[in-house]
Amino acid sequence: VQVVESGGGLVQAGGSLKLSCVASGSTSSINAMGWYRQAPGKQRELVAILSTDVRTTNYADSVKGRFTFSRDNAKNTMYLQMNSLKPEDTAVYYCYVRADWRWDYWGQGTRVTVSS
Known about the structure:
Blueprint: E1 2-6, E2 9-12, E3 17-24, E4 30-38, E5 45-51, E6 56-59, E7 67-72, E8 77-82, E9 91-99, E10 103-106, E11 110-115
Parallel strand pairs: 2-11
Antiparallel strand pairs: 1-3, 3-8, 4-5, 4-9, 5-6, 7-8, 9-10, 9-11
């Protein structure tokens, strides 16, 4: 499985961005998908994740009500709509999928910078 993100950029506080991630390869084996982020000097953290068996999306408390995860199965694409962005949302955002309940795949990351 391969995943490639796009959609990062520079935005002012209060603005919006939409990230996209396209999966290719053995996409039928994907069991979970979502987004992580890593801010400068910090560990990578979960932003949003969907497990296909449970079919519910879990969000980090810091983004609840502002970020929305969605997917288009026909396009093998997932999205992260980010609204009301804050400077503390500045990070490299990574697309993530788990396949066959054990193999983790990451995208190369897309940088999001929120200016105050």
